[in-house]
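ok so for the tutorial part 2 we go from a plain amino acid sequence to predicted structure tokens. step 1 is just haveing the sequence, like this:
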Amino acid sequence: MRAPASDLPLVFSNASVMRRDITILDSITLTIAPGPPTILIGPNGSGKTTLLRVAMGLIPLSGGSISWGGRENASPERRAITFQRPAMLRRSACANVRYALGAAAVPRVQRHKRAAELLTMVGLDALASRPARRLSGGEQQRLALARALARDPAVLFLDEPTASLDPYATKAIEDIVQVVGARGVKIVMSTHDLGQARRLAGDVVMLHRGRLVENTPAPEFFLTPLTEEARKFIAGELLV
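step 2 — the prediction. this is what the tokens look like for a chain of 240 residues:
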């Protein structure tokens, strides 16, 4: 797993999303480059999930553009996404991963070995034969990561993967994020957890009311935030 240079940077240019008369994303201009994880933060309704879905090609833009390595309308084959509540297929954990490998056009003769490798990476090798829907919430989220990695993505989008998980399950997810990032996959992850952002972020992107508030390296964001919104958010104050 290694992000080819041609897939990055990911550039949003005045990207906007409207739903009826409601602005969900408001003229976002943002560059996501290779390197450590980019962490998206902001209060509920700030546009984090929409930004990830737009980048994945799941939601069309109302205005502006997105380019991948200088190319617009690039194929999404080297992108993958996991959601806060992943849907599990009615089959075993291993079969879930094999299905994802098949969807990624991995040759059938390679799928069993590759599925075993991915399950080992996310710490689920001992649960390979267990029905996916009988896994715990944290285990299901790790399985969702294995399925996403079956695409051998250049960029992996994670939409609040540790929301509602206990500290043990959260640490397991964070460990996987660090391993995957170290192998060259660009991680773009949304979270409400400022502690998690401090632990994982190379750079922080903060959204509020669909607008880009800050986009800075993580140490600068937490030590010297540039905006009042960021200062309030870091201090735990409500943003309205």
